[in-house]
Write a structure and sequence with these properties.
The protein is an alpha/beta fold and 255 residues long. The protein has a single domain (2-250), classed as TIM Barrel (Alpha-Beta Barrel). It has helices at 18-27, 43-51, 70-83, 103-120, 132-142, 157-165, 182-190, 220-231, 235-250, and strands at residues 2-4, 30-36, 56-60, 88-95, 124-129, 148-151, 168-172, 196-198. An 8-stranded parallel β-sheet has the order 1-2-3-4-5-6-7-8, sandwiched between helices. Helix 8 packs across helix 9. The N and C termini lie close together (7 Å). Belongs to the metallo-dependent hydrolases superfamily. TatD-type hydrolase family. A divalent metal cation 1 binds at residues 6, 8, 91, 201. One of its GO terms (cellular component) is cytosol. GO terms for molecular function: hydrolase activity, acting on ester bonds; metal ion binding.
Length: 255
């Protein structure tokens, strides 16, 4: 099953042609799409969009680059998780690039979401930038039973193995279509295929042939093709294994 485990289909950039975006994804063979929220301001748009189609699945979370009013936002998230069925908590995480929210505030926000993941027995969709060791330390502390996905994985082989030990899969997206991304392409080729899931991060993280265009879920099929080429496998095998991994992790219904 071809699954895009991370696409922001509710974002305004898609408003003018969302039916077309979805039609192109389905025509490309995409059978499941996970739509994560980034802040309380788009919880309702994510939930409403996913309620309209049986192949769209919501996740709710507080992104470290978008959520700045922690306590009210956490209260809203806590209530939403009780009121609405979701497949994961996310997009959450740590982003330690300059100019982002203070590290201690990010950490506190993520810890609360880890607690919610444990309480609700949900997997996590984690955004991790320049903070893999810090996230790993928190995961070892809280040990969320359902694991999750490290979105747009950018870490080392050692960090990949540490995440896998903790039940986390690694999101592989458009970056592997760029020949200059040598580390990401090497890891995508060499890590166990069972550790990997496919994603687009639409409308972001464009593929090499679409640098100036918003990314779309349809292009996860091209990510699968490049991953297959890097590994010397058939595209069908890559789709089968990554789809099975994502389906089991997120408890998505069979196609």
């Amino acid at each position: 099953m071809l699954i895009d485990t991370h696409c922001h289909l509710d974002f305004p950039v898609f408003a003018a042609d969302r039916p077309g975006v979805l039609a192109r994804a389905r025509l490309a063979g995409v059978q499941r799409m996970v739509v994560p929220a980034v802040d309380v301001d788009n919880f309702q748009s994510v939930l409403a969009l996913c309620a309209e189609a049986s192949d769209l699945y919501p996740a709710l979370g507080l992104h470290p680059c978008f959520s700045h009013d922690a306590e009210p936002d956490l209260a809203t998230l806590t209530a939403a998780l009780v009121a609405h069925p979701v497949v994961a908590i996310g997009e959450a995480g740590l982003d330690y690039r300059p100019g982002q929210m203070a590290a201690d505030r990010q950490r506190a926000l993520l810890e609360r979401q880890l607690q919610l993941a444990c309480r609700h027995e949900l997997p996590l969709l984690l955004h991790v930038v320049k903070a893999h060791d810090q996230v790993l330390a928190l995961l070892r502390r809280y040990r969320p039973e359902r694991g999750g996905i490290i979105h747009a994985f950018s870490g080392s082989e050692q960090q990949a193995r540490a995440y896998a030990t903790l039940g986390f899969k690694l999101g592989i997206g458009g970056i592997i279509t760029h020949t200059r991304a040598r580390k990401q392409r090497r890891l995508a080729a060499e890590l166990p295929l069972e550790w990997l899931v496919l994603e687009t991060d639409a409308p972001d993280m464009p593929l090499a042939d679409y640098r100036d265009l918003p990314n779309e879920p349809a292009r996860v099929a091209e990510v699968a093709a490049v991953l297959a080429e890097l590994r010397g496998l058939s595209v069908a095998e890559v789709i089968r294994v990554t789809g099975s991994t994502a389906q089991q992790l997120l408890r998505l219904p069979p196609y």
